[in-house]
Amino acid sequence: MNNNKTGASARAVLTMALALTAAAIGLAQPAAAAEKVRIAMVVKSLGNGFFDAAHEGAKEAAKELGDVDIIYTGPTTPTAEGQIEIINSLISQKVDAIVVSANDANALVPIAKRAAQRGIKVISFDSGIARAGRLMQLNPSNAELIGVKQIQMASEAIGGAGEVAILSATAQATNQNIWIGEMKKALAKPEFSKIRLVATVYGDDQSDKSYREALGLLRSHPNLKAIIAPTTVGINAAGKAVVDEKLVGKVYVTGLGLPSEMAGHVKSGAVKSFAIWNPIDLGYAATFAAYQFVKGKNQGKDGETVAVGRMGSIKLDASGEAALAPPFTYDAGNVDKFAKIF
Known about the structure:
By secondary structure, this protein is α/β, with parallel strands linked by helices. It has two domains: 37-139 and 279-325, Response regulator (Rossmann fold, 3-Layer(aba) Sandwich), CATH 3.40.50.2300; 143-276, Rossmann fold. The chain has helices at 2-28, 49-65, 80-92, 109-117, 143-158, 174-187, 207-220, 232-244, 259-268, 279-294, 335-339, and strands spanning 37-42, 68-73, 97-100, 121-125, 137-139, 162-168, 195-202, 224-229, 252-255, 273-276, 305-307, 313-315, 321-323, 328-331. It has a six-stranded parallel β-sheet with strand order 2-1-3-4-5-13, with helices on both faces. A hairpin with a 5-residue loop joins strand 11 (305-307) and strand 12. The longest helix is centred in the first third of the chain and has 27 residues, at 2-28. The radius of gyration is 27 Å and the shape is elongated.
């Protein structure tokens, strides 16, 4: 019986030794690399300088967070159909989050819901998806401030009186329509009573079409004093049209543009001033926000505060929206400095 006990003890010791050895071997092995969070940024269209700058901000956020991979993508032309096809592919790739600037607020809702059902966190930025299709919408600025700012710049350029027209992106672009609505509200104010909006046209955020639409405005409205383009593609095209038609000093262009693209138009005299927020900051903040949702730190509830890295924090309103920063004005005094950045 003593021999049996001795044998059992020996076996127990041997088992424990093997277990300890196995544990030691396991500890000696390098830990598996943590799987990275994959965040897809779906923009209105590729080749757009505004979104290229937003991509730089997304990459900055990814580097700062350390465990993020950015997938930057978008259709070749700014259509909802193109974005739907891309998002469908991203669902198959099982990305963790999708950050999208929508070409059509409502058309993207069904595919965005499908992504959410697969556990993908969907947020929109710049141009929003309707509330039912996303957790949050990051607006680059306050819509009223953006609308009023553009009317103010046009008024200053034309001396407070005259005909103006709007050259927008797509007719379905959420942000464009909201800003146009705010511009019309501003025009109803007494201080802008001598300015008359004579037309609103759409260039679909395509350079060639925007240029043709700008030419159409200049030729159809001989008394036109200003073209307001709340789109970086449109304002650039309108500036070129004014120069080509030899109307510098007679018709002014303003709106939302990139300093790198608008510096030449400011120097030509076609543009006195324009505005934009920093798209790098916008892309950075949107990526940082998406990461918070993936990590479960935010759910998109009314009043939630979302951390956005070096940009501080943003607070969601009852519609799940938040504004990042007020628009900044660029003119001959500062455009060259910022043109080196974006």
